[in-house]
Amino acid sequence: QVQLVESGGGLVQAGGSLRLSCAASTSIFSITYMGWYRQAPGKQRELVAGITDGGSTNYADSVKGRFTISRDNAKNTVYLQMNSLKPEDTAVYYCAAKAIYWGKGTQVTVSS
C-alpha cells in the first residue's frame, strides 16, 4: 500500500509557474512508474506526465516543452514543474504510482 499526498497547487495567472509535489508514504525507489494526471470539469482524467524508475519520461502533447516531471527517490517525492501555464491547464492534478495508488489531488487554476 502506497499513500500519496499532492501539494503545490493554487491560483496563478496565465504565463506563470507552479511546482507540484507528490510525497509518498513509502520508498518509491522500486516503483516502476510514477505519473501525474489531471481532470478538468466535465472531462476525463488524462495522463500529463510520467517517469519510470530508470528516469525515462513521457508527456502529453499539450504540455511538452512546458512541464517537467522529476523524481527524488531519497525524498520519496515526485515533482511536476509547470511553466508557461495556460487557462486550459486548469484542473485537479493527481499523482499516481503505477496507476494503482492515487493521491486525492491538488487544484490548479490558471486565470487569463
Mean of pLDDT: 96
Helix content: under 10%
| Sequence of secondary-structure elements | EEEEEEEEEEE
The gyration radius over C-alpha positions equals 13 Å
Number of helices: 0
The low-confidence parts are none
Range of strand content: over 45%
Structure summary:
With 112 residues, the protein is an all-beta fold.
Summarize the structure in words.
The strands form two sheets. Strands 2, 4, 5, 6, 9, 10 and 11 form a seven-stranded mixed β-sheet that branches. This protein has 112 residues and is an all-beta fold. The protein is globular and about 40 Å long. It has no helices and eleven strands. The mean pLDDT is 96.
Name some characteristics of this structure.
globular, 112 residues, 7-stranded mixed sheet, mainly beta
Task: Set down the secondary structure blueprint.
Elements: E1 4-7, E2 10-13, E3 18-24, E4 33-39, E5 46-52, E6 57-59, E7 67-72, E8 77-82, E9 91-97, E10 101-102, E11 106-111
Parallel strand pairs: 2-11
Antiparallel strand pairs: 1-3, 3-8, 4-5, 4-9, 5-6, 7-8, 9-10, 9-11
